[in-house]
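[step 3/7] fold_predict: job queued, chain A
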Amino acid sequence: MTGTTMTSAGLDPRRRRLLFRAWHRGIREMDLVLGSFADREIAKMDEAELDMFERLLEIDDREMVKWVTGEAQLPPHLDTPLFGRIRAFNPDILGANG
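[step 4/7] structure written:
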């Protein structure tokens, strides 16, 4: 079981692939953060947001968790409204200070 609460039925292939990748990260906490976020938002994302989400999914979990929790400064090129929404989505999972 992945933890997803969303069915991928009705999503285009790109969104289905991104949803799967968001739930299969490597660090369970990042599965929960990115997967839960994708469950709620993937169907509403525009092309630019999908591009950015795809880039974020390429980042190693060890780096991502530091940025989500605020332990490390987010690189300026990733400091986007989408990342802000991810960080604010469920701060209790990692103790993020959103």
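[step 5/7] annotate
Helices lie at 13-23, 28-41, 47-57, 61-69, 81-89.
The mean pLDDT is 86.
exit 0
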